[in-house]
């Protein structure tokens, strides 16, 4: 019989050997009978554990790779990624094409914004909408600011053109021009001009009156050649609180009408002694055959001498 030391077989606590007691001795007889304690773990765990750990890591990596592939395919299908763009965003030769709506949370910097052929382009903002044009030094040159209830435009000048490219409206600090054929003001208050208004024609619309009025100051009509007042189907009334004065520096004042009526004239009293009133110049108004008016002495005749040809010319 041979008794072997338990320290040569293994470590306490491995297998089913209690950690606190020494392992049982192995008894060897002539029949060579060996008794071993039963094992608590499967043999493939206790034998070749490094290989098993490697297999486990490989299996974990395979699972992780398949999860990454599945997640990538899900992201591609959700965002609709393709070789030409992302979902509604398509990269073309001229730039980027967007189908649908786009939400811009910050600044949008672009050289051109255009819609597809036959489709409108809508820009929507909840508060305000601002368009800024700057120079190479990032200094503001022009600005269009659209509020909820107003529109502001700042720049050196403001131009409005029609479909043919011709200018219709021009505004700057120096002047404001309207290039259309007719400027119509339909408001009840009319058009108020604080400075001067320069125009070739002032015309009232059909079935409406034309009124030129200055409430607190005077009204001047000036032209380098002539001023023509015409009423084809009615009359022209000139009313003044004080005097109405018609002056012609070089030419004449012509009134062409079949009847000339001057009403509300004062009538002079007949003087008993006309010689006493000779200091006051009193004349009589005479008319030539051409309609030209001239003055004659109050006690004379309305006649023109033959030598005086310039008077009735």
Architecture overview:
By secondary structure, the chain is an alpha+beta fold. The chain contains two helices and 13 strands; from the N terminus they run E-E-H-H-E-E-E-E-E-E-E-E-E-E-E. It has helices at residues 43-46, 49-79; strands at 2-3, 27-28, 85-86, 89-91, 96-98, 129-134, 140-146, 151-154, 157-161, 167-172, 176-178, 283-287, 293-297. The strands form five sheets. It has a three-stranded antiparallel sheet, with no helix packed on it. It has a three-stranded antiparallel sheet with strand order 6-7-8, with no helix packed on it. A hairpin with a 2-residue loop joins strand 3 (85-86) and strand 4 (89-91).
Task: Give a summary of the structure in a few sentences.
With 313 residues, the protein is an alpha+beta fold. It contains two helices and 13 strands, in the order ββααβββββββββββ. It starts with a strand and ends in a 16-residue tail after the last strand.
Task: Output the keywords.
rod-shaped, 13 strands, 2 helices, 313 residues, alpha+beta, 3-stranded antiparallel beta sheet, disordered N terminus
